[in-house]
């Protein structure tokens, strides 16, 4: 006998280099009922990107139309291009019986927190600033100046930790993935998410 439950949106939030994207990919790989939230963007696709897999690539006009209809749970401009998360797509997937997971920055997560969407926020943090610096340098994709700027941003983002539901210290990758799965399982079993307990039980 399966009890009916409401699905929800899961956000993994961390400073750049905190490990949220790697954790997200592993959680999706291990859980068939969790789908990735694909954002919309006005920037052109890179050579290795696929429309509908990496992003929904749309025109500025289409983005503006969606924004005018208040279809974005969150949106932001980054380096002259716009990015956003569609409310209607998220709601459609939740109704279809899947949780949705996303990796997002602090500003975007705070925007979603102000909406009425069923939303669980998990902040991912490396154990120390030294470890974060080590991970950023290991990527070998950014200059020292960019790394310095990312560390300054991380310091500001950490001031917002108290606004989110959970904190995971990403010292051990496997443990961090399991902790995210435990949080999702606990949230699934909140009484408020059971939709018809009495009817399901007696039928």
At a glance:
It is built from eight helices and nine strands. The chain is of the alpha/beta class.
Question: How would you characterize the overall build of this protein?
Answer:
This protein is α/β, with parallel strands linked by helices and 203 residues long. It is 42% helix and 21% strand. The strands form two sheets. Strands 2-7-1-8-9 form a five-stranded parallel β-sheet, with helices on both faces. Strands 4-3-6-5 form a four-stranded mixed β-sheet. A hairpin with a 2-residue loop joins strand 5 (72-78) and strand 6. The protein is globular and about 65 Å long. The termini are close together. The model has no long low-confidence stretch (mean pLDDT 92).
Helix segment tally? 8
The pLDDT mean sits at 92
Written as H for each helix and E for each strand, in order along the chain, the element string is EHEEEHEEHEHEHHEHH
Task: Report the count of strand segments.
Answer: 9
Q: Which strands sit side by side, in order, in the main sheet?
A: 2-7-1-8-9
What does the largest sheet look like?
Answer: 5 strands, parallel
What proportion of the residues form beta strands (DSSP E)? 15-25%
Distance between the termini: 9 Å
Low-confidence stretches: none
Overall form: globular
Q: Helical proportion?
A: 40-55%
Q: Round the Cα radius of gyration to an integer and report it.
A: 18 Å
Q: What would you call the structural class?
A: alpha/beta
